[in-house]
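Late entry, evening session. Most of the bench is empty. Finally got around to the prediction I had been postponing all week. Sequence below, unchanged from the version circulated by S.P.
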Amino acid sequence: SCPPLSAIPNGNINGGKQRTHGSHAIFSCNAGYQQIGSSLALCNDGTWSEKLPKCLAICRPIPSIKNGKVIGKGRLHIEGDKISFTCNPNYMLEGEEAIRCTSTGQWNASEPVCKLQVQTPSTTISTTSTTAQATTQVQIPSTTISTTSATTKTTTQVQIPSTTISTTSAEIATQAQPKNCPDIPKIRKAVVNGSGVIPGSKRTFSCYNHWELSGSSETTCLNNGQWSKPLPTCKLT
């Protein structure tokens, strides 16, 4: 006789109780389960001709997802099966890329969704700067003063009969800012009175006895950083 048949999880066995030579057993699965294996086994010389089948849970079909594709569709999905998903161009997958059918007949995760990618258009800001130029003319009898201002350079022209003076903005800036004068060097046999080297400072000069001053006895520091008079000298009388 053949050995007794054990129960099939989520399945049924009809027959097979006699287990004598030539007897048979019929196998089937419960609803919601897929049978993997033979449906019939014969007892032959103390051995069953087939092994017991397996009954695996069936998961619900997922034929498609919106704006995407299901890879592995088109067949029955049973316990252990996997399916994967991809999205159409310009769509992004949100959720699991692949899910698996479990022994409970449920997928281990919900199917994902494909969401449209929001693309912010790039913005280019172009700025064009314009340099304005103004010309002002002031007329005085027999004299015309023309001033032209620009962003990087200013030119001033003063016209006097048969004379033109052209001054750049750099020179004007230099003239507009007072400069200190250099220190007065020591003058042989001379006495220097006064102090300071800023514009407006004054120095006076005198000579020792028997020495005579040659040159100006006074000089003033000008805004251009120069003394108004050359330095004098002392000569022996």
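Two things to note before I forget:
Confidence is low (pLDDT under 50) at residues 127-138, 143-156, 162-174.
The chain is about 5% helix and 40% strand.
Will write this up properly tomorrow.
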